[in-house]
Amino acid sequence: MAKQKETIKSQKMVELATFYIGDALCGMDILKVQEINKLLDMTEVPQAPEYVKGILNLRGQIVTIIDLGRKLGLTSTRRTADTRNIIVNSNNEYIGLMVDRIGDVVRTELEKIESPPANIGGVQGRYFDGVVKAENSLIGILDAEEVLKEEEM
Length: 153
Known about the structure:
This protein is mainly beta. It has one domain (15-151): CATH 2.40.50.180. It has helices at residues 2-10, 68-71, 144-148, and strands spanning 13-21, 24-29, 33-38, 52-58, 61-67, 84-90, 93-99, 101-109, 119-120, 123-124, 128-133, 138-142. The protein has a 5-stranded mixed beta sheet with strand order 8-1-2-12-11. A hairpin with a 2-residue loop joins strand 4 and strand 5. The longest helix has 9 residues, at 2-10. 28% of the residues are buried.
C-alpha cells in the first residue's frame, strides 16, 4: 500500500486548457484560467498598443482584452463564432486573452513536459514554460505571466 502512494505522488499530473492561435496548439495550466467566455461588446482604448483589443465589463470587473495572436507576433485573431476570451488573473487584474478557438483539456504528467525550443512556430520561446507531445501534435505551454508583463498597469 505504501508503495502505491509513492507511485501516485511521483506521477504528478497537470491539466492543460488548450486553445488555438491560428493553427498553433497552445495550452496553460487550467488552474490559471478564471473562465472562458464568448466575445462580448468591447470598448476601444485610445492610444493603446495594437494588441489591446479593448476593455469590457464582466460582472462589474473591468477586463482588458489582449489579442494573443498579435501579442505573440503572429496574425491577428479573427472574430468568428469560435473566438473566445480566456480570462486570467494577473497581479490582481483580470486580463482576457483572445484566441481563435478552444481545444480540449489535456492531462499530462509533469515529467513529460520538455523545455521550450528557442521558438515555437515563430513565437519566442520565452513566452512558453515548455512543450508536451499530445497524440497528433505538440502543445506549447504558454507562460501567461511572461506574455502579460508589459500589460501591468
